[in-house]
């Protein structure tokens, strides 16, 4: 082989190695980018908040009665409904939480009990009446 053909052979080999290296590096960069995007999608999916649970729709049947006041005649300490913050007046229909005996407006406590299931003052569980009438 003469000197010129040896040079051409070495130059072609070097050029082939260079392009093979460029192809390998390009492949690695594309692969890393795809893996990074997949990881970001998984992180976004894991970080996305799950939808809140539906509100409790409890069948609560509480007894009610007309409010009769404290009996001591003191108007300075008028009882108030902890839900609507309105005062409990003589003769208004009220209900009480059986577990703690806190008295509240009948309608206020009825709506509260359907979604919360506990007393708004002390968080005592409000009994759910079953089909047999037992709390």
TrEMBL record:
InterPro entries reported in the protein's UniProt record: RING-H2_zinc_finger (IPR053238), Znf_RING (IPR001841), Znf_RING/FYVE/PHD (IPR013083)
EC number: 2.3.2.27
Pfam families (alphabetical): zf-RING_2 (PF13639)
Keywords on record: Membrane, Metal-binding, Transmembrane, Transmembrane helix, Zinc, Zinc-finger
Chain segments annotated as transmembrane: 6-35
Known catalytic reactions: S-ubiquitinyl-[E2 ubiquitin-conjugating enzyme]-L-cysteine + [acceptor protein]-L-lysine = [E2 ubiquitin-conjugating enzyme]-L-cysteine + N(6)-ubiquitinyl-[acceptor protein]-L-lysine
Domain RING-type residues, every copy: 81-123
GO molecular function: ubiquitin protein ligase activity; zinc ion binding
Family according to the record: Belongs to the RING-type zinc finger family. ATL subfamily.
Protein name: RING-type E3 ubiquitin transferase
Species annotation: Eleusine coracana subsp. coracana
């Amino acid at each position: 082989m003469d000197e010129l053909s040896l040079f051409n052979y070495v130059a072609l080999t070097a050029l082939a190695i260079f392009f093979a290296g460029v192809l390998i590096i390009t492949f690695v960069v594309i692969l890393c980018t795809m893996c990074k995007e997949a990881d970001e999608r998984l992180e976004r999916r894991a970080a996305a908040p799950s939808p809140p649970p539906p509100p409790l729709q409890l069948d609560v049947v509480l007894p009610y009665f007309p409010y009769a006041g404290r009996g001591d005649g003191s108007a300075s300490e008028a009882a108030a409904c902890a839900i609507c913050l309105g005062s409990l007046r003589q003769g208004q229909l009220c209900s009480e939480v059986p577990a703690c005996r806190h008295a509240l407006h009948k309608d206020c406590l009825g709506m509260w009990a359907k979604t919360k299931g506990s007393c708004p003052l002390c968080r005592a569980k409000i009994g759910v009446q079953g089909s047999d009438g037992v709390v």
